[in-house]
Amino acid sequence: MEVRSAQEIWEAALGELQLQVSKSNYKTWLEKTVGLSFQNNQFVVGVPNTFVAEYLDQSQRSLIEKTLMGITHHNLHVLFQVDSRYQNPQSSSSTREATVTPRQTGIPSLNPKYTFDSFIVGPCNHLAYAAAFGVAQNPGHSYNPLFIFGGVGLGKTHLLHAIGHVAQASHCQVLYVSAEQFTNEFINAVYEKKTEEFRNKYRRVNMLLIDDIHFIGGKGQTEESFFHTFDELHNANRQIVITGNCLPKSMPLLHDSLRSRLEWGLMAEVQPPDPETRLALLQAKAKQ
Fold first, then answer.
1. In sequence order, which residues have a C-beta less than 8 Å from that of residue 54 and are 6 or more positions away?
2. Would the CA dihedral through 131, 160, 135, 196 be positive or negative?
3. Which of 14, 37, 219, 260 minimizes the number of CB atoms within 10 Å of its CB?
């Protein structure tokens, strides 16, 4: 009865949480969770594996506890615990498919609008543009890795896509993915026991473009997987281009060894545009 009561409370909480987080985050991190118990002001949430537990504990604890306290009217502490039902090899395949396997999402494709021709160059981004163009024409030799950093909406993703377009035109095998998508695919691979396929997918490309690397900071196994992927590609002179919201040394959640590798190549900043560049951007948008 206690487990059922906890599950009813958790289902009500999930209904509220679904309105407060993005659809992709809900499906990845919350959809497969259950309420296991509620006793002595401790609410236990069952999760499919340690990766989900780690993410919820570090990134969503405050929101979840606030939501549960609003429903129960009690001060409480949330504990995320791997649910043994997900690890039971005797469970039927149909049950396992319904309760364990998250929905697979596709790899983002390159945006045809994000090219070097459509990128407005100014003093604020000239170095990043020149480095990106050099990498696109000569992958694995100019700057490896190339790390582009700056605030939101300044063109980092645009440059990643532009690099990919030029490289693909030269028949280079390119893989573009956000760090969030990398994380989700890694979790899916662990769920489905397809880690070997995951490794082959990411380590056999000629060019890997990773957007928003800061997302994997603090996600232990995901970060370790990317660390080994980085090493294998770099040792084979395969091009790696990464974007982040700040310098690697300013990402405290990243492991020291990974931060060090991100600094091996060239770090190019994209700064807010000056008035002349802003005017050029407006004129370009007007033409579009």
1. 219, 220, 221
2. positive
3. 260
Q: What is the pLDDT of residue 142?
A: 76
Q: Which residues of 170-182 are buried (b: 16+ CB within 10 A; e: fewer)?
A: eebebbbbbbbbb
Euclidean distance between CA atoms 174 and 195, whole angstroms? 20
Name the amino acid, one letter, at 49: N
Mean pLDDT by 10 residues, the chain (288 residues): 70 91 77 89 87 78 92 90 63 33 46 85 88 89 90 90 88 91 90 89 93 88 92 94 92 88 91 79 74
pTM for the full predicted model: 0.61
Rg (CA), the chain: 22
What pLDDT shows up at residue 51?
65
Confidence (pLDDT) at 244:
93
**Residue-level pLDDT at 176:** 94
Helix axes 179-191, 220-235, angle to 10 degrees: 110
Would you state the structure tokens that stand for residue 246, as one six-digit string? Answer: 């700040």
**4, 265, 285: which is closest to 135 by C-alpha?**
265
What integer pLDDT is reported at residue 288 of this predicted model?
Answer: 66
Nearest of 87, 16, 74 to residue 46 by alpha carbon: 87
Which residues have CB under 8 Å from 282's CB, separation 6+? none
Under 8 Å between Cβ of 34 and 7: yes
- DSSP letter for each residue of 241-276: EEEESS-GGG-TTS-HHHHHHHTSSEEEEEPPPPHH
Distant-in-sequence contacts of 183-186, Cβ < 8 A, 24+ apart: 183/215, 183/216, 183/219, 183/222, 184/24, 184/28, 184/102, 184/105, 186/51, 186/221, 186/222, 186/225
Kindly give the pairing relationship between strand 146-150 and strand 239-244: parallel
- Per DSSP, which regions of 189-238 are E strands? 207-211
